[in-house]
UniProtKB/TrEMBL annotation, chains A, B:
<dbReference type="Pfam" id="PF23023">
    <property type="entry name" value="Anti-Pycsar_Apyc1"/>
</dbReference>
<keyword id="KW-0862">Zinc</keyword>
<comment type="subunit">
    <text>Homodimer.</text>
</comment>
<protein>
    <recommendedName>
        <fullName>Ribonuclease Z</fullName>
        <ecNumber>3.1.26.11</ecNumber>
    </recommendedName>
</protein>
<comment type="function">
    <text>Zinc phosphodiesterase, which displays some tRNA 3'-processing endonuclease activity. Probably involved in tRNA maturation, by removing a 3'-trailer from precursor tRNA.</text>
</comment>
<feature type="binding site">
    <location>
        <position position="268"/>
    </location>
    <ligand>
        <name>Zn(2+) 2</name>
    </ligand>
</feature>
<feature type="binding site">
    <location>
        <position position="65"/>
    </location>
    <ligand>
        <name>Zn(2+) 2</name>
    </ligand>
</feature>
<feature type="binding site">
    <location>
        <position position="60"/>
    </location>
    <ligand>
        <name>Zn(2+) 1</name>
    </ligand>
</feature>
<feature type="binding site">
    <location>
        <position position="210"/>
    </location>
    <ligand>
        <name>Zn(2+) 2</name>
    </ligand>
</feature>
<keyword id="KW-0378">Hydrolase</keyword>
<dbReference type="InterPro" id="IPR013471">
    <property type="entry name" value="RNase_Z/BN"/>
</dbReference>
<dbReference type="InterPro" id="IPR036866">
    <property type="entry name" value="RibonucZ/Hydroxyglut_hydro"/>
</dbReference>
<keyword id="KW-0255">Endonuclease</keyword>
<keyword id="KW-0479">Metal-binding</keyword>
<feature type="binding site">
    <location>
        <position position="62"/>
    </location>
    <ligand>
        <name>Zn(2+) 1</name>
    </ligand>
</feature>
<feature type="binding site">
    <location>
        <position position="64"/>
    </location>
    <ligand>
        <name>Zn(2+) 2</name>
    </ligand>
</feature>
<feature type="binding site">
    <location>
        <position position="140"/>
    </location>
    <ligand>
        <name>Zn(2+) 1</name>
    </ligand>
</feature>
Length: 302, 302
């Protein structure tokens, strides 16, 4: 998986900082997560082809997470898009986007499919042969979901030497990779573990923003390879975090620790702080490794 | 008047070009005209204080002219704005903006006043002691208004030498500046023209975008000091201009010529052309002087 941060700052777009948006590249998909104002310009800036985006996941309906969406949807039309676009987000998103388009007497000439979310329990919202996406119910001022992206369990890896040794016909290879034992012509059972190696662990990424400190997400994101967790504030402003239902860097790290994730990425910073390093420092005391998101930065996951 | 172009390109925001937005500074007002996506970042970039903006004029409800408005309205709240904000635009704009705010369970803590426009005739939409703003009905694919900003007729300038010569008391100065004649104690009438000079001509600016070639606006914008007229295309693409109800550089110049304006500024360029100079060249054959708008450029008017 490759994660590219298009924007990771709280509240409003500024000259040098963008509101939330990121792109996750996984198994030929280019998933767009949140779409703050200016996202389409950030996509251009980072050379991400608009045509590769078919699925957009919106965490919640605060402006800094979706005010770039109407413009992006319109631009797709101007670019002559023909293929389907799927938008996953809280109930209300369909009416908002369609109303804005109708006001301009315009429409999309490509199929625009809204998947409106209302469940307070985690649910699978996208699945194909290789990837599964499910919601992570979060605790914010409005209905908010994080998103868990998981590669599906891969097939076992063939032990070439072993299958040669047992002189197994190629016709059985797919069966073996699926984990089945083999019965030879003389009735002998060859256990699958002698013919295969464990597959590489499927990679997983959890996006959790915006949210207060919310330990009930821990079982859902247990041992993900990478957790992006909002850290709007430092502990010195924990009272503001509580009041606005955001998290501190320390709280993000607590979640990462409890869930034993592979790596924590912090983001959604308030612009009140002089240096992002303050966030890393605070989180590192509780959990490591900690990475700092920043606009334009990419991370390889898994 | 000082006009600052925040964005003047057609269609979608790109890395180096912004959709329509401009700021007109006149008599202590900072009027914002149109508000494409990214306008708030452009305002910051050009050091324009958000608190100085109290009136926003939206020409029409195509995304490239108003998708930056929800974000700007939200940012005003985050910045703790208390004073009124007036938004003038086509019917529907109120429902759109309030719906987007409601979805985020947010509202403005300052008075937000919508002035929805439906008239197909020119109407005065703002007036105070020094400035008057009226609509310029345009011809585009959706209901669209340009805006005419005029300083009001100023008071006549006192001829200090003359009033001294006639030994006129200061108490009469305001009456004289308003154009009244003076009757002396012995009943002699001193005509106002002997006591005053003509006031400087009031400055005027007309914003006309988006629109097809539409000569019926000419009487309205007659002899304005400065006309901003869209020129999405060159004559070589006049068929596209007709189809999409936009104008060519030549057509913009025809309007400027018929209205005998002081200066023509071109803008709303399609990004298909290699150089903006092509627009100037085409327009200059018909009318001069022609200026080219560009993002970040300022013009002094009057």
């Amino acid at each position: 998986m490759k994660l590219t941060i298009l924007g990771c700052y709280a509240a409003t777009p500024r000259t040098l900082t963008n509101p939330t948006s990121q792109v996750l590249e996984v198994k030929n998909h280019m998933f767009l997560i949140d779409c703050g104002e200016g996202t389409q310009v950030q996509l251009r800036k980072h050379g991400i082809k608009f045509s590769r985006i078919s699925h957009i996941f919106i965490s919640h309906l605060h402006g800094d997470h979706f005010f770039g969406l109407p413009g992006l949807v319109s631009t797709f039309r101007l670019l002559g898009r023909e293929k389907e676009l799927h938008i996953y987000g809280p109930k209300g998103i369909k009416e908002a986007i369609t109303m804005l388009l109708k006001l301009g007497d315009s429409w999309t000439n490509y199929p625009l499919c809204f998947h409106e979310l209302t469940s307070v329990d985690s649910q699978v919202i996208f699945e194909d042969a290789k990837v599964i996406v499910q919601t992570i119910p979060l605790d914010h001022r409005v209905y908010t979901n994080g998103f868990l992206f998981r590669e599906k369990e891969r097939e076992r890896t063939l032990n070439i030497e072993a299958v040669r040794y047992y002189e197994i016909d190629k016709a059985y290879f797919n069966t073996i990779k699926k984990g089945k034992d083999i019965v030879t012509e003389i009735g002998e059972i060859i256990p699958n573990r002698e013919l295969t190696f464990d597959p590489p662990k499927p990679t997983s990424y959890a996006f959790c923003s915006d949210t207060a400190y919310h330990p009930s997400i821990v079982p859902l994101i247990k041992e993900v390879d990478c957790l992006y967790h909002e850290a709007t504030f430092l502990e010195s402003e924990v009272h503001l975090a509580k009041k606005t239902k955001h998290a501190t860097a320390k709280e993000a790290a607590e979640i990462a620790k409890q869930a034993s994730v592979g790596k924590l990425i912090l983001g959604h910073y308030s612009t009140r702080y002089s240096s992002l390093e303050l966030f890393r420092k605070e989180a590192s005391v509780v959990f490591e490794p900690v990475e700092l998101a920043d606009d334009g930065k990419s991370f390889h996951i898994g």
